[in-house]
Amino acid sequence: MNRVLVLGGGQLGLMMAEAAARLGLVVDRYDPERALLLPGTSDLAVPITWEECLERYPVVTVEREAFPDSGLSARLAASDRCVARGALAVIPDRYTQKSMLDELGIATAPWRNLDRVEDLADAAAEFGGVVVKARSGGYDGRGTWIVGDGGDLSAVPAEELAGRAIVEKKIPFRRELSIVGARNPAGETLFYPLTRNWHVDGILRLSLAPANASAALQPEAENILRRIMEKLDYAGVMAVEFFEEDGRLLVNEIAPRVHNSGHWTHEGADWSQFDLHVHALAGVPLHSLNVHGPSAMVNLIGTPFDQAWLQHPGVVHWYGKSVRPGRKVGHANLVAPTLEGLRKGLNAWADVLPEGFEAILDSELALD
């Protein structure tokens, strides 16, 4: 295999194409909204037909979970060439995703389906604080409503969501963690270390890797991700986000693709998650990973490019998107010999990090 088609025209597919070019392979991107092909890393879009796709691309992968209901992208996502086909049938709907995890005996926040308006009050009576999530389409905090124990349920549009949402128990987690790993068609797997994540208003703002004091949790996290990939017969990189509660891991979300919390691997490991994704799809034997040291990823959210960033510690990755509030337009990666050194480097990025990031670093440093 030397040519892959990725469904999606965003920055994740572009970074896959960049990784493939370094490996002597080709990743082309199909933009579903424009119904046009973006060859390699080019921005010059061209038309393509179903027959041409079958001729050129033995493997199809994805950079996102949702596609139009009809058209070439929908047809390709459902084809037997799409290595994420099984995952796309399960993961995008939180009901089927949670049901699969229950079937596998993998721990998640207790939950129930929001079939009727009355189910919301029943869930709150059972769980206390609740999190209501639209079954599909939610992203970066959208489609999510959080109500604390005894809180006002009227803020949740229950009538609108009935039959289209789930209700979870609000977990008093110690921290949010994620694991990114890969599986190739031969069933070989490889994993990065657990990553500590900090979200604000549902949007990832900072990742620290490897997560401190996580060695005891790493085998459990790897086993969970391995079982999910095997269940879905998945090839490529996949990510699982967890809540850490009382020394155990609860699955929060699954992403059948390269993931924002794995962006630190650009500079923090010998092979980035994009390299690893292409390796897995090409059937390359998955070898051990070398992690360079404590790493941080700072998401650049809704801000114009600032030339001063180039004088800060770290490496800037800019996506070339138009800027609007809440939009991920780039990220910066930092690597240091120690977490304390990483903290010093992050101080230079205080203007793009929300207030309170120092407390996250303090809490991570305090873990043994």
UniProtKB/TrEMBL annotation:
**Which residues participate in ATP binding?**
R94, K133, E168, K169, K170, I171, E176, H199, N252, E253
The entry's family comment says: Belongs to the PurK/PurT family.
UniProt pathway annotation? Purine metabolism; IMP biosynthesis via de novo pathway; 5-amino-1-(5-phospho-D-ribosyl)imidazole-4-carboxylate from 5-amino-1-(5-phospho-D-ribosyl)imidazole (N5-CAIR route): step 1/2
Q: Which Pfam families match?
A: ATP-grasp, PurK_C
- HAMAP family hit by this protein: PurK
Q: Species name for this entry?
A: Alloalcanivorax venustensis ISO4
* PROSITE patterns per record: ATP_GRASP (PS50975)
Sorted keywords for this record are: ATP-binding, Ligase, Nucleotide-binding, Purine biosynthesis
What biological function has been recorded for the protein in this entry? Catalyzes the ATP-dependent conversion of 5-aminoimidazole ribonucleotide (AIR) and HCO(3)(-) to N5-carboxyaminoimidazole ribonucleotide (N5-CAIR).
EC number per UniProt: 6.3.4.18
Q: What is this protein called?
A: N5-carboxyaminoimidazole ribonucleotide synthase
Catalytic activity reads:
5-amino-1-(5-phospho-beta-D-ribosyl)imidazole + hydrogencarbonate + ATP = 5-carboxyamino-1-(5-phospho-D-ribosyl)imidazole + ADP + phosphate + 2 H(+)
- Report the residue ranges that make up the ATP-grasp domain in this protein: 98-282
What gene does this protein come from?
purK
Q: How does it assemble?
A: Homodimer.
